Amino acid sequence: MLGPVILAASRSDRMRRLISAAPVTKQVVDRFIPGETVDEVVPIIEDLTAKGLELTMDVVGEDITRPEQAAAARDAYLRLIDRIKDLELGERVEMSVKLSMFGQALEGGHELALANVRPVVEAAAAIGTTVTLDAEDHTTLDSMFAIHDELRRDFPQTGCVIQAYLFRTEADARRLAANGSRVRLVKGAYKEPAEVAYQQKHEIDKAYVRILKVLMEGTGYPMIGSHDPRLISVAQELARRAGRKLDEYEFQMLYGIRSDEHLRLAAEGHRMRVYTAYGTDWYGYFMRRLAEKPANLRFFVRSMITKG
User: Fold this and answer.
1) Is residue 288 part of an annotated ligand binding site?
2) How buried is 24 (Cβ within 10 angstroms: 0-12 exposed, 13-18 middle, 19+ buried)?
């Protein structure tokens, strides 16, 4: 399987330098990351919302080694929220955050991440939107869920992400579905050991369906993070069986992947949210997109051969 190899490369400084220096890299990266600054992504936000889509915005960058960097990440999100306020799109655009960017891995990281993310959640709520806490590797999840629970006391709309490939996730889903949480279900994109995660695609797919059924039958708000046509069809059927209306769940897909499907689902009346990342520290995000889907890797390699 190429996925684990690519994920290992995402942590390699040597591979970072090699890929970043390739002449074609920026052209390909632009497919997944449409800008480095807020000013560059504002036209994307305006274009997608005009087409009936919703967005969740991610300021990329996870290699935080100093508290000042965590504070800078917080401030970057606050600037983004100010722009969304100016655009009057608070009801259409939310934020996704990785707590590693807010200092979770530093000394006293749990408290530091909570202190940094809370102002972002407060500012988002003030303009009528919300924040979803992205899931990272399995060692960070207890802290993430504890921060999620803490934030929901004052901001119950705060969402979180769960990953189908982890053995623990079905139990997490039952707890979250029972307490009415907003939950994005994804397959998972980190290299996890066999002791904690399914390794085979068919096992992950089966787990995804089991967990999605739990979410659909619960009292929360399921967010289906998948580009897989079969899983999208399964989600629609599970929603129908659970008696959910079209505004009681949503689909989420990455910017630059299956864009026609984004528009098709929105045209059918579904809530369709596009996960849109931007920023200068794009390497780790880009490599995980390659690892998630072989077609993405083929696209990158073909581009390097034909344009490099």
Assistant:
1) yes
2) middle
